[in-house]
Amino acid sequence: MDVEVIHLGWCSPLDHQGYSRKVLAKSFYSEDPALVAERLLGALLVRVYRGVRLSGVIVEVEAYYGSWDPASRAYKSMRGDLARTLYGDVGLALVYGVHKQWLLNVVAHREGDGGAVLIRAIEPLEGIDLMAKLRGVRDLRSLTNGPGRLTRALAVDKSFHKKPLYEETYGLWIEEGFTIDESRIARSKRIGVSKDLDEPLRFYVKDNPYVSRI
DNA sequence: CGCCAGATTGACT
DNA sequence: GTCAATCTGGCGG
Question: Closest Cα partner for A153 from A129, A177, A117?
């Protein structure tokens, strides 16, 4: 396991003692979406763009289910491509466009079910200058604290739809990263959905300044 | 092919 | 805090 000592700025709330560059295997995503979502906190979302490694620590996620989840793209219809992707192979990216933004999910569910995890925010780690350029902002706090913002910072668009995130082939993948203590994880209702489930399906790192606004 | 809701963002009162 | 621009995807006709 490759472990490297890194140093973030004074404002980082994480204990950056070192992190694992091990790419998360496909089997990691063969679990209940809520479980996968929680386990993804602390992991690294990595993108290689024009030879530059861009990355950030995942600090906010949401779990979505299949046809019985009113906020799911598979709700009441299995005909569309998004619905079929939700029920298809796990570990693939599901890129969904809404309000001019691209939202990045990773397909995750148990056998026979459907589901995905939406990546809502990352803490910038590597390639920050280039990410700021791609976003057109200078403020670190507003660089990747939102699902549409982080895809723009990482130059992720629809071309990544249905590409595997468990291998480096397409320049976008997820690594093991850091371990976040359970005591630092909080959960709430999902943001922006009109019809949510009773169960809180949003997970985030407590007091992390790179979590999206509530 | 037209319609429209929506897992957002950024600008503005 | 409020609000609307903007466009994809899924649906009906």
Answer: A129
Find the mean pLDDT for residues A179-188. 93
Distance CA A77, CA A67 (A): 7
CB atoms within 10 A of CB A194: 6
CA A181 to C1' B6, whole Å: 34
Give residue limits of the domains in chain A: 3-205
| Per-residue model confidence as pLDDT tens digits over A129-162 | 999 999 999 999 999 999 999 999 999 999 999 9
Q: Which DSSP symbol is given to A92?
A: B
The dotted CATH code for A3-205 is: 3.10.300.10
Report chain B positions within 7 A of protein CB atoms.
5-10
Cβ-count burial A95-120 (b if 16+ within 10 Å, e if not): bbeeeeebbbbbbbbeeeebbbbbbb
Mean pLDDT, residues A172-181 = 94
DSSP A138: -
Query: Residue A192 CB closer than 7 angstroms to strand C?
Result: no
